[in-house]
Structure formats: structure tokens, C-alpha cells
Specification:
The chain is α+β, with helices and mostly antiparallel strands. The protein has a domain of 52 residues. It has a 4-stranded antiparallel β-sheet.
Amino acid sequence: MSWARKPPIGHAEAVSEHTESTALRLRPPAHRVSPRAIGYWTTTAAILWIVLIGVQTLIVLTSDDAPAFLSVTLVVSCVLGPLHLIVMPQWRYRVHRWEVTGEAVYTQAGWLKQQWRIAPISRIQTVDIERDPFEQLFGLAKITVTTASAAGPLRIAGLRHDRALELADELTKTTQAIRGDAT
């Protein structure tokens, strides 16, 4: 039984390997999302809190024998809701970042659970722009970059709509210029 040995890496291969590993290191992306995202996140969260508090209030006020825990959850919601609306959008704005270089797409997102992602340009398969009604109201969009990765697509949310269009165009041109099958 013979064991095949891997040939030693030549200097050019080592430099290329070193350059790729340093160029694609996980790091904080350079760009923040649009400041309009703060208003968007606040509005969408406020709607959920208003519905939750409204339903709880309606049940407590219209029920002849409302459970005591429902009154407690109503008070807790009335305290946590405004606190959430003050803290969450600002925190998310500080955390959410993105960057596109000639080699990769970098994203950082979340507020309680934070996620950093990097995808080499050569692995990009599709670039999509999406806007829900509230994003349209705030002039925002999100970009979804689908890659050949088991981790799923990268999302950049909270971009100005015009910037999202420019970025999608830039990514499309860059990926078309890169040879490979994105797998």
C-alpha cells in the first residue's frame, strides 16, 4: 500500500493562498444601513406592540372574569413595548453593516442574535431586491444575495432604494465578470 504525498506548495501558490485568506477574512463591514431604517424598524415594531396591547386591553376590559395573569401581561407589555421601541432600532442601526468588495460581500446583522457573514463574489448565484409596503413608505429596500452555501443567502436590509438598485447592478456586473460556476 503506497501513500500518495501532496506536492509542496510553491512560492507563487503560497502567496496566492495567503492573499486569498487575508482578503476574505471575517471582519466588520464598512457601511451602515440608511438612517431611515431606524424609523422603519420603529414603525413595524410599534404596530406589533399596538396590536398586542390592544388585544390584551380589549380582553381585560370586556371580560367579566379576566384571568389575573392577563392583567400582569398587559402591564408588562406596556412597560416592555416602549422600552423595546427606544432601544431596538438604535441598537440595530449600530450593528447592521454591509460592504461589497471585488472579492466578497460582507454582512453583519441582528441585535440580540448577531450574525457576521462573508460570501466570495465567485459563489454568488442570484441577487434580488425586495420591498414590503412599509419599506416602500420609508424609501428602503433589502437585497438578498443567494450563494452556493448551505448557510443560506446573505441579506442586506435597510438600504435606500436607489442604493439597493446601484448595489444590485454592481453585484450583477461583478459576478458576470468572474469566471466560474458559482458552486
